[in-house]
Amino acid sequence: MISAAASLTEDQWIEVLYNRFRIEVSQDRRPALHRAIGAYAQSIGEDNESLLAKALSRQLSAENWSKIIHLATNHETRFFRNRAIIDQLCNYAETFARPRVLSVGCSTGEEPYSIAIALAERGLANFKVHGIDVSEDCIAAASEGIYKASEAIPSRYVKEVTNGHLRFYDWLKDFVTFSQHNVMSDRPIGFTNPSVIVTQNMLIYYRKEARHRILEGLALGLPIGGYLITGPSEDAGWKSTDLQRLPVPTASVFKRTQ
């Protein structure tokens, strides 16, 4: 049973994360987050309460915040997680001479690399895929490009390294870049004029109003003719005067028309 003090500390962490970074943590994930922050606090000679006190008084370092943000966000992903959406994305990308694809909430990079493989399999050789995530740790792992062996990855794109892990060849990694970014911030994304923007299983962790704000911000970066793709129903009924919703059963797809 959670004590009143522990419950208060948990609520305060949720408030701090939202007020400072606009990160929302679902009710069912909060106890696990509280335990994870407690374990991290112990690893640096603190406890949950003392770490929270430093957070409230703005005494935490950028490295501390990076670790806490990583703990607070969901990183569940896998290669070719939703093949139908990737295939649809490739159909749109092929209509551009030099497609630029932005993967939002890319976690440890499986989605951007899946997209790059899918585009390469279609014979495209002049494209860029850029992944963004709020977690610095995830971006570091994605940039390294080393993963556990997966049957979803064709062998021609990877080489064996150690302990059953694979590393993407540099020629494929040259198509893929990553950067840390919080989509709830006002800071511009360092990847201009994307032909296609895709976000899957990230919006579900935000409330309706936050989802709409995120989508509005992403839409602003699209050129005319560009596409915005989310998982089915993840847009929470979002409507835009500048983007047209397309009738696609496997995803929520919008196209900038003006």
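The record above closes out task 2.4. Task 2.5 opens with a second protein, given below.
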Amino acid sequence: LLGTGTRGAPRGAAGAGVAALRRAHTAGTVVVACDIPSGVDADDGSAAPDAAVVADVTVTFGGLKRGLLLHPGAAHAGRVRVGDLGPRYDPGETTWDVLAPAGATPTRWDAATDKRGRGTALVVAGASGTSGAAALTASGALAAGAGLVTAAVPATVRTDVAAGADPGVMVHALPADQQGAVDAAAVHALPNLDAVDVVVAGPGMGYGPGAAAVVAALRRDARRLVLDADALNVHRDAPEALAQHRGDLVLTPHERELARIGGGSDGHDAWTHRVERTPALARSLDATIVVKGPGTMVVAPDGRVWVCPLGGPELGSGGTGDALAGIIGAAIAVADDVPLAVAQAVWWHAAAGEVAGRRAAGRATATSLLSELPAVLAGLQEWSEHPGPDLPWDAWRMWQPGRAPTDVGRAGLPRSTAR
């Protein structure tokens, strides 16, 4: 009904047409949108409530539009196919993709791979009252495939973390302050960072002077570093310091944390403008940024952007972000392409959350999510060897219209780039 340049709710005859198409879709009629469902903003995916077409299939022309990937636009698009108009599409310096199952397949280890070959991870997290965050982060790293995982935590919670984490996690005590958080002296008590492939820091850590000192030391010395939660919050007064780091850096903010690291004046502002601001922020910090929320974005410093088509309210449970930080750490520990590995980890986490949510009426927990992760990884490997329209077990019949545009988005295919 309307083209890609329109904004806001359709009015007049176009509005009446949208209403008729919505009624038809509700009644079971298959709706195919051309280029983009009318009422969806092609640039940012916004859609006026109850005033945008809901399609089963969208055939878009020339290249993907960002609005088909981002929430809530993706929920209106259904399955997405890209039609060829002839001339090759130039996406510019920023490319947008949906990571489909083919792009999310985990590494298959060969017979000679030992635990160090799978990657060593150090988790620096936790404090009195938040020992569970450290336990979930470390357990997430182990479940996602890291061969050796050590949790470095304040001495006051060492026993609690050891009891709460997977038994395969080793625990290292750090000096604690009077509040039970990490002390600045912990800078000198960290394990040898040159012997660690990746460090994950922040969950439940607190953002006092001790945490700030430790995170600064990790930025200086870690070969690969994932900063989550409080490890982001310690930069709220000087976010530009995040640009100073030794190795590969991954940041995992939700909307309020995104604002604190330079993405906006507050959470709402940062979320509203994430599409245009986050690629520039990733370049300026030389970091991969995971913008968590509906349609989680993974933004690489080289201009690549992936949008995760999975995940929903089942991930809105305490601890799921901690688990994600650990999963990302495991994924990038020995990866050749760090941003792509981050995007894969986000997909694994969201898929495991959906499976766990289906088993619990949408009420997944971080623990139930991690319990589903091995089946997710195994299913992806099986699917990669015998691909089909759906993943190979009933619990994963989740490819409903608006949830996963599986026809596009295999990493690296030019046809799945969007402006």
